[in-house]
From TrEMBL:
Pfam families: Aminotran_5. Keywords: Pyridoxal phosphate, Transferase. InterPro entries: Aminotrans_V_dom (IPR000192), Aminotrans_V_PyrdxlP_BS (IPR020578), Cys_dSase_SufS (IPR010970), Cysteine_dSase (IPR016454), PyrdxlP-dep_Trfase (IPR015424), PyrdxlP-dep_Trfase_major (IPR015421), PyrdxlP-dep_Trfase_small (IPR015422). This is Cysteine desulfurase. It catalyses: (sulfur carrier)-H + L-cysteine = (sulfur carrier)-SH + L-alanine. PROSITE patterns: AA_TRANSFER_CLASS_5 (PS00595). GO terms for molecular function: cysteine desulfurase activity. It comes from the Bacteria. It comes from Streptomyces gamaensis. The keyword Lyase does not apply. Belongs to the class-V pyridoxal-phosphate-dependent aminotransferase family. Csd subfamily. Its EC number is 2.8.1.7. Residues 26-395 form the Aminotransferase class V domain. The lineage of its organism: Bacteria, Bacillati, Actinomycetota, Actinomycetes, Kitasatosporales. Catalyzes the removal of elemental sulfur and selenium atoms from L-cysteine, L-cystine, L-selenocysteine, and L-selenocystine to produce L-alanine.
Amino acid sequence: GPGFAPEAARQDVPILHRPVNGRPLVWLDNGATTQKPRQVIETLAAFYATANSNIHRGAHTLAREATDMYEAGRAAVAAFLGAESPGTVVFTRGTTEAINLVAQTWGRADLGPGDEILVSTLEHHSNIVPWQMLAKERRARLVPIPLRDDGGIDQRAFADLLSCRTRLVALSHASNVLGTVPPVAEMTALAHRYGAKVLIDGAQAVAHFPVDVQELGCDFYTFSGHKLYGPTGIGALYGTPEALAAMPPWQGGGNMIDSVGFDRVTFAPVPHCFEAGTGDISGVVGLKAAIDWLTSFDRQAVAAHESALLHYAQQQLATVPGLEILGSAPEKIAVLTFTLAGHDPAEVAGWLDRQGIAVRAGHHCAQPSLRHYGLDSAARASLALYNTSEEVDQLVAALRQLTERGD
Ligand code: PMP
């Protein structure tokens, strides 16, 4: 194919052109959040300047326009995920809220004593803690699936842990620390043989490669707009029509009801019964703009560009004395979590920041992943489509300088 040139995408993203500490910004914290193209920024401003209204209420022109834009956002998310219909998409604040929604509706209604929830050891805390809280409440068990040394999920252990007690398997589509992309379609098919439901956390996946939820066969899929070049505060839960139809509503309030009396309430149909209150209307409109922007590129070419950057970064970082990268699974997104002998991760991040290079240091909200390697903190460079090999060179040069500086 023609390949993907990041320069055109960079032109769309204003913040990439600001200096930080006197140097051009090198944004390598995309795992935390991505930077926004002007198409998203301008869409948000235009919504408030020309179309702002609450939705599903009032019979005036702006309400109709805002409602149409909100529902166009739902249709765009459904198409982006390969979902059956827009009705399978519930808007949430993000991945965390989407997972909590499933835990508190499906989980509370269906889970009982002795039931088991399997989660992989590489999950983000948002795909662990809601299940832990649910398990405690329902007297169910949360069971971790171990990792291999390369950061992949141990498939034999997974097969052994599955049983007729397994009610849910919760898996990341891509790890935010190790970058691992587990074989979630195969794992889903296996889990379904035991009658378990499968939730896939796509927070780190959707920006990097095309996703088709029907091909994956999962019951639930979640993502956050802000990791997809869109606004913060908006994300989505996909559920199969069967799964969503069987779930009780979650929060009560406006927008999610059909009729309310003091002795009786009837709920709006799916997905509206899961969207109580005024949602992030501009966020939905901005999310659609982000999806439109991302899908205007050749996704396979974008994935090839990011994969080439990953391999280049792996090679170059390996030349820095004392540097070790965590996670070398063959299927991996461009996330480089590393330690540097003799330097605390916070010191590494601070040194890089002084040169305008943004990486994250800490536990990355995935403490079990780091503990697997005997660590409680590491530095992480996480790449996106607008990153370049020159930026990788700047990262490597700065790290080399730090090791050569002595103390
Ligand atoms: N899952 C993964 C794999 C993540 O990387 C993140 C964000 N770092 C989340 C879930 C949580 O996403 P949010 O904070 O947007 O809800």
